[in-house]
Design goal:
With 451 residues, the protein is mainly α. Helices cover 74% and strands 2% of the residues. A two-stranded antiparallel sheet has the order 1-2. Strand 1 and strand 2 form a beta hairpin. The longest helix has 40 residues. The radius of gyration is 35 Å and the shape is globular.
Amino acid sequence: MVTTRSSTGGELRERKTTDYDTPSKSNKRKTSSVATMSTNYHDAESQWANRTMEAKQRAVERDRIVIYKRPLTTVWLFINVTYRTFASYAAWVYRHRNVTVLPVILILVLQYNLRRFHYQPVQDWQAEVDRNTAYFMWWVGLGVLSSIGLGTGMHSGMLFMFPHILKTVLFAEGCGHTNFDSRINMWNAAITGNVSFECGAAAGAAPATWWNLLLKLAPAGILWGAGTAIGEIPPYFVSYSAAKLGGEENEELSELEDASNGDVVTQMKRWMVNVLRRFGFWGVLAFSAYPNAAFDLVGICCGHFMMPFLTFFGGTFVGKALIKAPGQVAGAVVVFGSGTREAFKAWLQPLLPASYHALVVSKMEAAILKFQKINEGEGPEAHSFFSFYSNGFGLAQVWSLVVIGLVGFFALSCVHQFAKGRQLELDNGYLDKKYPLTVREDIHHKKNVTA
């Protein structure tokens, strides 16, 4: 109770105090809580500023992690992140062993038991499975070898694919039909040249026309093209992993966004990235649907802006396995077939000047002669990677070296990005321990309250 004096009569009155007259305990707690929050906010803001400053200093140090400034640190970080990546994939395979390892074991056990049967139909079926498996692995493996070398892969098309087409076409013309097994021209027989086809029964056999020869050779071409598509995965994977590890610190992508950087390499990458970003699957398909010596750059650029794997590989597979390789087979059948070659020459004659027509004809004859020598066992040694450059330098050799140099530069930049990405992980872990995440949460909470 409090005593008050009236302003008119001066008499004393008593009245009961209300909550508005004196501070309550809850109001005192609110005031204290606001003051504490304000103090915590200022402390958190100060710590966050310190963290940001230290993060910038560490970013400057990460810029020095390149092979020509800190070689040991760069190599160690690259090896470390590579090991961690493969270890994570191995752990994934082990965790999903029911769908990755067990089916392989079951197939091997089934194959082993089938081989123990002496029933002739089973043995014939097993022999057919073995031949098709070897055929599949041979052509897919040759395709992988031709494209997996980052510009330095084996020229398996020149050494095996086109000689195989020539051998099949010439033998089919000799038989008059396509009823023979051309799958035997693989592995040791193809390498040594000791292979001879056997003509089958002519009755009911398909004649040796261009279309029938294309159908006969298309499986080998598609498998070889699929192998070349698979061989393009490593450049994409390396670049994708580097961009993912680097996160927002990815210097390659920031360099591409910097329009002031006008060197030739960056301009080429920027143009390719813009095309691929705009058209996605169709851009990859367009770059892969013709003999593109610089396609490794496409995989690297797709990895840089983290294109989804199925988009990249889908476009690459369709372009290489279903368009480019069958197209090369179709063209080779035209050139190697005597009837189609003469028809092609006659078709070209009114379209080209006499000198150009003679040049095209001479090139076709030279290609046939070269592949005939390869089929006779004179080719693989004479057309190796090193002899490609020892026979003199022309436009093809110079362009090949340019592509190798560009791809080598991108591969080195990916190594740098791997190393910097790993160092970024280590730096973030250190900063999170020194400046806990509650600092960021306090700032966020204060902003939400004041809002």
